[in-house]
Amino acid sequence: MSQARIVYLNGDFLPFAEARVPIMDRGFLFADGIYEVSAVLDGRLVDNEAHLARLDRSLGEIDIRNPHSLSEWVALQTDLVARNGLSEGLVYMQVTRGVYERDFAYPPADTAPTVMMFTQAKAVAKNPLAESGAKVITVPDLRWKRRDIKSVALLAQVLAKQQAAAAGVAEAWMVEDDAVTEGSSSTAFIITKGGTLVTRPLSTALLPGITRQAVLRLAAETGLTLEERLFGVAEAKDAAEAFYTSASAFVMPVVAIDGHVVGEGRPGAHTRRLRELYLGMARESV
Amino acid sequence: MSQARIVYLNGDFLPFAEARVPIMDRGFLFADGIYEVSAVLDGRLVDNEAHLARLDRSLGEIDIRNPHSLSEWVALQTDLVARNGLSEGLVYMQVTRGVYERDFAYPPADTAPTVMMFTQAKAVAKNPLAESGAKVITVPDLRWKRRDIKSVALLAQVLAKQQAAAAGVAEAWMVEDDAVTEGSSSTAFIITKGGTLVTRPLSTALLPGITRQAVLRLAAETGLTLEERLFGVAEAKDAAEAFYTSASAFVMPVVAIDGHVVGEGRPGAHTRRLRELYLGMARESV
């Protein structure tokens, strides 16, 4: 795009190069902030109200007031998508506890949160990786205990994703006590040879995935049996199909885990069907 | 001070209000960075080489190249202290993986790290809290598993310190599996009624405290018996003395834990002696 990239920062739409935050921003000093990502398809936001509801919940869990109502958020997102002429990709939103002299405890309650948004153009629907299927490796889960909060304290996830990149694969599945907890930026699923869709139940130990929720809804409609429980690495390698979900990967087939071929080594029939159903739902989003 | 505050950012000494980082800084997006804090006493840096060695080690653990040699760091710190006319307080240093389009995996290896430093004036030696003694509460330890890395992914510590602030006390001691792991920004110690100084041994589960190390050295010289092991909350409440250490608190007596009075409810004799010895050592730092 020749169009100049525009980002949103604290009330202003700015040229990308001008968007800077003070060094005393608590996002920069303490990872004291929350983020969300909504996909954009055909210029429209996908399952966006669920993302904004999760943003509101995450902010509440760490006592940051949500600086915008749902309709204000949608108006800002829509404006940003339009200003960037974005038809396919994602909108990233971040809210931090704001700018104040460095001290661990919260600053005064009237400190204004920092609000930042940008877009990224990306082939989220016509993603070639979804055709070939993704390979994943497993890594130890180093994260903190409140994984239900979508905070910017992402160093453990960065290290996991980098291990995947170094291994030449798309994603790292994190493992704790022999069970697969989550992908570094996705939710992990398997489909057993008996035809049961398995993913772990919600708790403070994982992010309540928006795409996860949509896929569980769609899977129930197709008649797949659902089982919400932990699964191990050995069970995943032995599964008929595997996949992961996220706001930008949608439903991504997994064809190898730690070099072990899953199923027939290509995207499974159930997984392809779930991706199609998800894309259908996404395109119907208003 | 009427003197304008000056901070350091990527090669420049800037007025505080002008020091900003791009929104794509990985410190702001991912907590993908490391920090250190050195105390300043009589205008001189305290135990500074040990802090710079730990900075180097932390950076290495997450594959960020240290942008400066030891002597370059010291020159920058000294310059910053002088420009701010700082005689007592601290120097804060932060290095992030730099600025690059958002993606979890590392950016190209030639991406320049972000280097930022500021000073804070603070009564670190003549701290009234050291006279009265500090109260602490205990909170669950929510942190990640690589606590030996001094990263800016500090949200768990922020939440812990805020609980302390809300309870009207100075520090929160974090607890996991019934043992005291660390303070939210300090190392925890007790002295048993039998006269043994107890603190947990180094591992990936705690920060290798620079002040901790100095205090263990000084304690050995005074003839106190040392024991490096975990201790529980009940044992701490029943201890003869308790204290915590950090680069800015030095040796801080603890006089109450969760409202339970420790010892005689005032700074203990061993603790006061260790604080004096530490201050003596600090003032001799060059």
Any key phrases for this structure?
homodimer; 286 residues; alpha+beta; D-amino Acid Aminotransferase, Chain A, domain 1; D-amino Acid Aminotransferase, Chain A, domain 2; 2 domains; 8 helices
Describe the 3D structure.
Two copies of one chain form a homodimer. The model of chain A has no long low-confidence stretch (mean pLDDT 97). Helix content of chain A is 29%, strand content 30%. Chain A folds into two domains: 6-121, Aminotransferase class 4, branched-chain amino acid transferase, N-terminal domain (D-amino Acid Aminotransferase, Chain A, domain 1); 129-285, D-amino Acid Aminotransferase, Chain A, domain 2, CATH 3.20.10.10. Chain A has eight helices and 16 strands. In chain A, strands 8, 9, 10, 11, 12, 13, 14, 15 and 16 form a nine-stranded mixed beta sheet that branches. In chain A, strands 2-1-7-6-4-5 form a six-stranded antiparallel beta sheet. Chain A has 286 residues and is an alpha+beta fold. Chain A has helices at residues 26-30, 48-61, 70-83, 128-132, 155-166, 210-222, 233-237, 269-284; strands spanning 6-9, 12-15, 20-22, 33-41, 44-45, 89-96, 114-121, 134-140, 171-176, 179-183, 187-191, 196-199, 225-228, 241-246, 250-257, 260-261. β3 (20-22) of chain A pairs antiparallel with β3 (20-22) of chain B, so a sheet runs across the interface.
